Amino acid sequence: MTTQRSAYRASILHSIADPKEVELEQSYQYFEDGVLVVENGHVIDIGPATEVLARHSPSMPVTSYQNKLITSGFIDTHIHYPQTGMIASYGEQLLDWLENYTFPEERRFKNPIYAHKVAKLFLDELASNGTTTALVFGTVHKESIDVFFSEAEKRNLRMIAGKVLMDRNAPDYLTDTPESGYQASKDLIEKWHQRGRLLYAVTPRFAPTSTPEQLATVGKLLEEYPDVYLHTHLSENKKEIEWVLDLFPERDSYLDVYDHYGLLHKRSVFAHGIHLSDCECERLAESESAIAFCPTSNLFLGSGLFKLTKLEEKGVRVGMGTDVGAGTSFSILQTMSEAYKIMQLQQEKLHPFKSLYLATLGGAKALHLEDKIGNLAIGKEADFVVLDLHATQLMRFRMQQTITLEEKLFVLMSLGDDRTVCETYIYGDKAYDANPSLSKHPEKKVVNIA
Ligand code: GUN
Ligand code: ZN
Fold this sequence. Notes:
By secondary structure, the protein is of the alpha/beta class.
């Protein structure tokens, strides 16, 4: 980490509140000519350039960007690193997709050399898409998480991840037992949780692949380590829900299965939650659990339309997830574009400032990390991106027709993707540089901080 004080001058936009709680104009800060000052991995100043520069020594190094926008790094609240190699697999809905594509690929992570190769590629992909924090599934193999965390640690990333727990309804080559899964999770928590910026998530895959005995061990781990996360799937697909109710006939609902074993707490994040009853939404809110909205995955697997408004009205915190490899893009910008379309199919709108919130501060709140990340307020960790609103010919042409900031932001979120991300900074250091001269080509130069 660079300890030197450094400044970055560009247009700066960041989310400071949920637009559902304040007037739209109060939900963000925008400095047309702004300066962000960073020291020891943290934001120490932000504001209009003339004011900020006057407060600091003239010898402070300033990197100036022409026609660029700085915003805080994107937060992906649900993604599977081992599914990088089978993204875009054809033709199935959830349960067959798991059987035919996912499990065979996850088998390969028994080999730590393969796992390490994919972890590096995955983290490069997050950086080139401007994602600076993610909540990540590994595989059942303990080593899959060891290699993931060691690579994330080298890059100084704030990452949350966990080994998958599965002791039934999966191929033998991918199952553990209640005892072995418990012990491996415990070892990983002791080794990695709170080490630097890393955090651990206890990760049962979903209710159908864990016995009641295994779910009880998950509850035990959460009791023993109350500040670790719980990360799993919930109510994604109609057949999945029927299966859960068959496997746990004594429980009232899918969520009630998790609730019964003590898995609902303020650091629980459930992916999807598409087909939830009012009671389930209320229980999620009451327990302060969060839901990851994964639009590209929900469309790709034909899972259904996410009820953002209903969940928010019930008081549930929601973050955005790509859910790669069921999701089809690492880009949170593309994810917001698909989220907008999902809302349109329900005759609702998703305002660009709300999208900005969900992609950054809302994700941080879903993870209870808003004191550390999610925007560029003074004191936060300096994870930020430099975006080019004119990254493609089409974007440049379209941007010329825009007048307001919200129009520009909407075009950015509808047309933007990794081509829009010029640089990504992690904890105050440049972790990715697209090199503008190469930006028209698919090859990108990735500089890892080692
Ligand atoms: N439910 C259980 N496992 C998975 C998975 O790997 N991806 C998705 N989208 N849903 C799941
Ligand atoms: Zn998933």
